[in-house]
Amino acid sequence: MPELPEVEVSRQGIQPHIEQKTITNIIIRQPQLRWPIPQDVHLAKNEKVVSVTRRAKYLLLNTEKGSIILHLGMSGKLRVVPSTTPVQKHDHVDIEFDNHLVLRLNDPRRFGAMLWQGAGEPTHSVMSKLGPEPLTDIFTAEYIYDKSRGRSGAIKQFIMDNAIVVGVGNIYANESLFKAGIHPKRAAGKVSLARYQRLVPIIKQTLQTAIQQGGTTLKDFTQVDGKPGYFAQQLDVYGRGGEKCHQCGETLKEIRLGQRSTVYCGQCQT
């Protein structure tokens, strides 16, 4: 599933082609994605996209009447193609623009979403309970320390909880905890403020580096495959269970936490 950096690179990739452009048509070939596509999305027709923003892993095409909300789910990808480009299998939605380009959603597994947020309406239910963005000033060591008090659950699952902070997916949780020297199974409520003061900047830098790498790797969303996937990153622990730790040479251990693969160094992380 695309994580926050991959979705942010998707936003950066499509933005130059559709921002300040007018939607001329919306073609829905498959109305049943993760949720049925609401008819209200057609309210965006003939409206200008004033901005393309992201909230967690949701992309928002913002118009004066409201916002089209897009989610890539497990297998979704976005492409910006000429309007004459032949439709392929699993091309479920086209959003056509007055520059003769189309934003095309392809989603083989149909776990993605296309929703509508009307202007002035309460925040859509899919986004109403989300925590702060990790790359903003709201996400601080003091904030997460306060949220963690009394929590007996593992720190890795705590920082992956979207109600606490959005976008710290499995890869980035593994990598950040390793760099911070924190054992992934340590109870979140037992982590000191000083250790959160080390962890939070590392989370921010890990995500920012991934976004930068993705922007370099995927230069043009008008190519055939607009899916960013996971970038060719230099990973310290994720996917390296049984290999040697880059820092101390000990064998990295791999366990399951919350049904997710978790790799750590028993020597470096306490």
CATH class of the largest domain: Mainly Alpha
Low-confidence residue ranges: none
SSE order, as H and E?
HEEEEEEEEHHHHEE
CATH topology of the largest domain: Helicase, Ruva Protein, domain 3
| Whole-number tally of structural domains | 2
Q: Looking across the biggest beta sheet, what order are the strands in? A: 1-6-7-5
Description:
- The protein is built from five helices and ten strands.
- The chain is α+β, with helices and mostly antiparallel strands.
- It folds into two domains: 115 residues, N-terminal domain of MutM-like DNA repair proteins, CATH 3.20.190; 124 residues, Helicase, Ruva Protein, domain 3 (Orthogonal Bundle), CATH 1.10.8.
- Helix 2 crosses helix 5.
- The longest helix has 25 residues.
- The mean pLDDT is 93.
Q: Which keywords apply here?
A:
single chain; 270 residues; N-terminal domain of MutM-like DNA repair proteins; Helicase, Ruva Protein, domain 3; 24% helix; 21% strand; elongated
